[in-house]
Write a structure and sequence with these properties.
Blueprint: E1 2-8, H1 22-39, H2 44-50, E2 52-63, E3 72-82, E4 86-95, E5 100-113, H3 124-131, H4 157-163, E6 166-172, H5 186-203, E7 218-229, E8 238-248, E9 252-261, E10 267-279, E11 284-286, H6 290-297
Antiparallel strand pairs: 1-3, 2-5, 2-7, 3-4, 4-5, 6-8, 7-10, 8-9, 9-10, 10-11
Helix pairs in contact: 1-5
């Protein structure tokens, strides 16, 4: 694997749980993808000349240990599979202070025209260079609580409403969140989900959460995410996030999040998240309290998937 990223956690990248927010793992993953493209000869000069680049289609993330403000970090990446129009890439993000694995990411990244998003054939020399970077799947990066099967057919906003999913976010795509082509940057798809979680907990009447007027030491933390990109959201689009509970285990529970363009009713992204109940004082996962489990089980929606 090769080095593709090195930096440190900034305070403004952290959330109310006191650790690096999920949207910034996505951002760093995309930076690492661009650095890998550079390494196989498809860097900025090639992108500017041919107007091509890689975009994630299917993005899996596992969070192994939290990253607190000021933590130095580095990312290494390798190639799992080389295809005509895409690469499957694995990335491992390390905490440089103790060399522990903080997160792992797997991306199916399509090589496209940046203007139209139409697929392009990866040039032969770049495919050969990518082949030279092939690695076996690191055991730590393999999906654990999420099945990486074929995603469901594109759901519609009407489908989500029929299933009784919660509305957990609604807002517009802002210009500063977009790339040079007026499309929402990858970080902000995950950001919509992250911003929606307090609203989700309020609607499901979770007690003792951060932001609850009664206070408490309970929070939540994501262990794993899968994001499937469906359609680019653009500057000015009104987006609506619908959320439903898919599964409840002993310590973990799984939410599905479907993000829609309100104007067309089409899905722009679907995601599944495996989360834990988190003791903010002990900084560790705890069993789901019985009262919470009963409440969660009452919210299950059969048939949900990414």
């Amino acid at each position: 694997m090769i080095d593709v990223y090195r930096s440190s956690v900034q305070t403004w990248e952290c959330d109310q749980m006191g650790h690096l927010n999920v949207q910034f793992y996505c951002e760093k993953s995309i930076e690492g993808l661009d650095a890998l493209a550079q390494a196989i000869g498809l860097g900025p000069a090639h992108a500017r000349q041919h107007d091509t680049g890689f975009v994630p289609i299917d993005h899996h993330l596992r969070f192994h240990r939290e990253l607190r403000p000021g933590t130095p970090m580095t990312m290494r990446a390798g190639v799992l599979d080389v295809r005509e129009h895409s690469l499957r890439v694995v990335q491992v993000l390390h905490n440089m202070a103790d060399n522990s694995i903080a997160a792992t990411m797997i991306l199916d990244a399509a090589f496209v025209s940046r203007a139209s998003l139409k697929p392009h054939v990866i040039p032969g020399p770049a495919r050969e260079a990518a082949e030279s970077l092939k690695v076996e799947m690191p055991e730590a990066a393999a999906p654990r609580g999420i099945t990486m099967g074929v995603p469901r057919q594109n759901p519609t906003l009407e489908d989500a409403e029929t299933l009784g999913m919660f509305t957990t976010f609604q807002g517009i795509v802002k210009r500063h969140e977009c790339d040079a082509y007026g499309r929402l940057q990858v970080r902000h798809y995950m950001g919509r989900v992250s911003d929606a979680i307090p609203a989700l907990l309020a609607q499901t009447r979770e007690p003792g959460i951060v932001g609850d007027v009664r206070g408490g030491n309970l929070g939540g933390a994501a262990l794993e995410y899968r994001m499937v990109h469906r359609k680019a959201a653009e500057d000015g689009d009104v987006l609506c996030l619908k959320t439903g509970l898919r599964h409840v285990g002993n310590k973990t529970y799984s939410w599905c999040h479907w993000l829609f363009d309100v104007d067309s009713g089409e899905a722009v992204m679907t995601a599944e998240a495996v989360a834990i109940t988190f003791d903010l004082h002990a900084r560790k996962a705890i069993d789901i309290p019985p009262e919470r489990r009963t409440r969660l089980e009452s919210l299950l929606i059969p048939g949900l998937s990414v």
